[in-house]
Amino acid sequence: MRKWFIFFIVIFFIAGCAQQNNGTTFVTTVEHVIDGDTVKIRKDGKLVTVRLLNIDTPETYREKQAYGEEAKQFAKDVLLHKKVTIELSAKEKPYDRYGRLLAYIWMEDQTLYQEKIVKEGLARVAYMFDPDTKYAKQLYEAQEQAKKAKKRIWSVDGYVTEKGFDMSVWRDKAS
User: Fold this and answer.
1) Which of 59, 144, 161, 163 has the most CB atoms around its CB within 10 Å?
2) Which residues are catalytic?
3) Cα 1 to chain center, whole Å?
């Protein structure tokens, strides 16, 4: 009897520890795609905006940027209405200054969405800050592959900058 009691106490303790770490990842469905690096999901019954960590895609609002619509369509094709695993930022409070949840998205086939869109030449690696540098190596490797292949955003010299995307190179190219 005493062995069973100890067994249940140990199981209860292990389960309690597992629940404490439960907030770092969860499974959900992508409800809406805003653009290539921002989506909406359901979390705790509420619609929540998620800003994807470590990537930047061209804009589709305000100033429309080259490949922005393609990045948005790519996100729709691979994420919309799909079951995904959300891996939250390692920050104590995983939100940006706009109240968006900061996270990585893992697709059902265990592929990191951020790596996939970077590899396709539709996103640049950006906003790489501690403590969210866990996948830096694989993201930079994916970016190098896209650069070497001159895929999409990398097809026009000078379009991708440290600060984002420079549409003036497109205007200069057209003149």
Assistant:
1) 59
2) 51, 59, 100
3) 50
H helix runs in the chain, sequence order? 2-20, 68-79, 113-119, 136-148, 168-174
CA distance 161 to 89: 25
Residue 73 token pair: 């369509």
User: How many beta carbons lie within 10 A of that of residue 44, not counting itself?
Assistant: 7
- Which has the closest alpha carbon to 84: 44, 48, 112, 117? 112
The DSSP element (H or E) to which 104 belongs, if any, is strand 101-106
Predicted pLDDT of residue 157 = 94
- Please give the Cα distance from 168 to 140 (Å, whole number): 25
Q: 30, exposed or middle or buried, with CB in 10 Å at 0-12, 13-18, 19+?
A: buried
Q: 95, 101 in Cβ contact below 8 A?
A: yes
Residue 83 corresponds to which tokens in the numbers above?
A: 């079951």
In the predicted model, what is the mean pLDDT of residues 120-126?
98
Instruction: Say what the pLDDT of residue 9 is.
Output: 40
Q: How far apart are CA 117 and CA 143, in angstroms?
A: 9
Amino acid at 138: Q
4 pLDDT more than 90: no
Block residue for tokens 């949840």? 101
Whether the model pTM is above 0.70:
yes
Tokens of 11: 């199981």
Backbone angles phi, psi at 65, to 5 degrees: -110, 150
